[in-house]
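Hi support team,

I've been running sequence recovery on a batch of backbones for a student project. Most finish fine, but this one hangs at about 90% for roughly twenty minutes before it completes. I'm not sure whether the input is malformed or the queue is just slow. I've pasted the structure tokens below so you can try to reproduce it. Let me know if you need the job ID as well.

Thanks,
M.K.
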């Protein structure tokens, strides 16, 4: 395609917003840090009400709307495609729990799920959680967690109305249909009933800080102010959380800071003092489950790819651990779940996922799936005594499929294939895994999908996605929305860069702290490899990433702007240096183990300063950019995308379009309804399509 037919994304005729510059300087380790847009951070955060800040964000949103208006037809076309692939009647595969069969379903046209259960004795089905009714009249609504007491009487659920992830909890008597007077505020999200159903465990967020230091137990019928603290975290640098074991015998409390984790077990009656299973001084990660009087612990103490050990719940000291599966360079143990007769273990072997079934006698076999390149995981498996395993499976060309794996016949029984009402022919698409050579010689996996018949002549556009942090791996899964790009001739690629854990836990370690730049280099090198192999031409690649992936986008556009046709920075963590220098932000101290501590270490300061995307914007040409954020986002604060946009506008020397969409009533995860979220995606797709000269 001739260059003149490419991007339609030029600066709008209407003048783009210009943020004021207010001189701000700080000194750290003898280094001077200048930041003309420091004022965009409201000093009263999480309250954001300064007229100058709100005014600038509203100007940017108005400018964004001016971009949308002439392109509304394309947005609606893509949105209609998304809706056409959305099953309005979608429902879950039912599952059994404690005498009831549970399911969720959507009613046609509704944004939220309805949850019901059927009494297996009487056959009576009733709705116990109508999310649509609860969300009625609200711009934002998210259920954080819900749980039903073992006696089947009480429902407790946590919900968020603003996107700030500061949940409220309500409790409903399912016998009478009435709510209890109990209301819990400032809850982190997760909740769990005691075994007798008379108490509820939750983590309490500190006032004005998105950070929990106490795990409390609330006795039904009492005031929240008298709740009992069962665990208190003394270190601001640690996150806390909890979860019930598969056996229902214990709740496991975890305090974590990066790789360092500390675990405790508390009997499920929530009475007594938690017993320490692993001390943080040991300095490793672990996950814990329980069965038959034994804790099963997946730990990377002796090998970074984890081993599986067992220990008696009567004396769980580490010196009593017995290894069941040793660590391996070739097999990265990811998670596991215990059942009465067996354990299910998920691993990733040389970048390919595996599901293993292991008996308590030590016999083991692998579950065989129909494709070589796929993602699979445990689905909802509530009953400890069930004699099958429910699995969730998909690939880049296979829609999500729910299987029940029959342990006797060793076969997969299909329970549900995600329906695409407008139609989908899998045979028209192809997926593959290639290995790109990074500049230091490391082989980086890349997962690709495209329509069959694609020619390796560099003639088609390519969309490259990346993340690369916290050991999180972007797995090669299915997206019905992606078909809108594939059917317009795009190749879609996922760069499994270091910082994730596609190739094992060391893959993560090789992309964090002082090796962080490997993540950025890998992404750019993957793009150059795809150009070299004639999948695409340089300058015809659109890229996107969210959160830490948005940081990756910022770094990639700073390093190699000439490669990209457009850039989508979703809730981007681009102001890394300033954020890591602000210990008053609740998420900063726990993040020092991921990014470094520039307050204490001059080396960390210099490293972060060298790559922090916001701090490295310079006067030059850049590709078109779509930036998004949420005013109530507690993870990547609104001022990060805002400051990036302001500084980029001031310094870039091109006339390519730069727009920012700030959701003034949401947080990190944008729109909460399924159709509202699809509309957001449609706008982002339209921006990318226009960058490639695609107008319909």
């Amino acid at each position: 395609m001739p260059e003149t037919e490419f991007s339609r994304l030029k600066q709008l005729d209407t003048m783009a917003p210009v943020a004021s510059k207010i001189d701000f300087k700080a000194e750290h380790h003898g280094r001077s840090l200048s930041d003309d847009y420091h004022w965009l951070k409201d000093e009263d955060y999480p309250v954001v009400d300064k007229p100058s800040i709100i005014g600038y964000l509203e100007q940017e949103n108005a400018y964004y709307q001016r971009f949308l208006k002439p392109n509304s037809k394309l947005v609606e076309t893509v949105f209609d495609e998304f809706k056409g692939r959305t099953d309005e009647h979608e429902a879950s595969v039912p599952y059994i729990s404690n005498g009831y069969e549970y399911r969720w379903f959507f009613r046609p046209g509704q944004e939220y799920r309805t949850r019901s259960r059927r009494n297996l004795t009487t056959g009576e089905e009733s709705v116990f959680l109508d999310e649509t009714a609860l969300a009625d009249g609200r711009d934002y609504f998210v259920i954080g967690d819900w749980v039903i007491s073992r006696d089947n009487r009480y429902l407790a659920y946590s919900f968020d109305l603003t996107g700030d992830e500061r949940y409220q909890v309500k409790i409903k008597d399912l016998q009478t249909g009435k709510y209890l007077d109990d209301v819990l505020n400032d809850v982190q999200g997760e909740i769990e009933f005691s075994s007798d159903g008379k108490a509820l465990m939750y983590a309490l967020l500190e006032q004005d800080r998105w950070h929990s230091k106490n795990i409390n137990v609330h006795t039904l019928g009492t005031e929240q102010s008298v709740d009992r603290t069962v665990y208190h975290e003394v270190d601001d640098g640690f996150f806390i959380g909890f979860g019930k074991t598969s056996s229902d015998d214990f709740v496991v409390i975890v305090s974590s800071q990066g790789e360092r984790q500390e675990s405790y077990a508390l009997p499920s009656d929530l009475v007594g003092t938690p017993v320490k299973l692993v001390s943080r001084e040991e300095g490793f990660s672990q996950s814990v489950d329980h069965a038959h009087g034994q804790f099963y612990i997946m730990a990377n103490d002796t090998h970074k790819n984890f081993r599986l050990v067992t220990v008696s719940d009567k004396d769980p000291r580490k010196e009593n651990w017995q290894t069941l599966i040793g660590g391996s360079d070739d097999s990265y143990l990811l998670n596991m779940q215990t059942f009465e007769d067996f354990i299910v273990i998920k691993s990733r072997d040389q970048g390919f996922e595996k599901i293993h079934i292991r008996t308590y006698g030590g016999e083991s076999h692998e579950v065989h799936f129909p494709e070589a390149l796929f993602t699979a995981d445990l689905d909802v498996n509530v009953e400890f005594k069930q004699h099958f395993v429910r699995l969730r499976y998909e690939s880049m060309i296979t829609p999500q499929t729910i299987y029940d794996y029959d342990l006797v016949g060793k076969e997969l029984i299909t329970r549900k294939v995600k329906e695409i009402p407008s139609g989908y022919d899998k045979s028209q698409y192809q997926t593959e895994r290639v290995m790109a050579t990074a500049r230091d010689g490391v082989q980086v996996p890349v997962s690709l999908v495209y329509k069959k018949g694609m020619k390796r002549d560099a003639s088609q556009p390519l969309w490259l996605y990346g993340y690369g942090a916290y050991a999180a791996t972007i797995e090669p899964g299915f997206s019905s929305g992606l078909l809108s790009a594939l059917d317009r001739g795009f190749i879609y690629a996922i760069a499994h860069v270091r910082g994730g854990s596609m190739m094992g836990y060391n893959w993560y370690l090789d992309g964090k702290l002082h090796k962080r730049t490997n993540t950025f280099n890998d992404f750019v090198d993957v793009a150059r490899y795809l150009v070299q192999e004639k999948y695409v031409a340089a300058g015809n690649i659109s890229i996107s990433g969210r959160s830490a992936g948005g940081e990756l986008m910022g770094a990639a556009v700073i390093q190699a702007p000439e490669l990209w046709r457009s850039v989508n920075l979703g809730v981007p963590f681009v102001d890394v240096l300033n954020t890591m220098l602000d210990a008053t932000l609740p998420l900063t101290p726990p993040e020092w183990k991921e990014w470094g501590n520039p307050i204490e270490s001059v080396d960390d300061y210099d490293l972060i300063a060298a790559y922090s995307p916001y701090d490295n914007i310079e006067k030059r040409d850049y590709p078109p950019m779509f930036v998004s954020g949420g005013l109530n986002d507690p993870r990547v604060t609104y001022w990060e995308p805002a400051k990036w946009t302001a500084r980029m506008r001031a310094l870039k020397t091109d006339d390519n379009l730069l727009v920012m969409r700030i959701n003034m009533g949401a947080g990190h995860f944008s729109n909460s309804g399924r159709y509202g979220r699809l509309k957001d995606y449609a706008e982002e797709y339209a921006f990318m399509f226009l960058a490639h000269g695609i107008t319909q």
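--
Follow-up from support: It reproduced on our side and the slowdown came from queue contention, not your input. DSSP finds twelve helices and 37 strands in the chain. No action needed from you.
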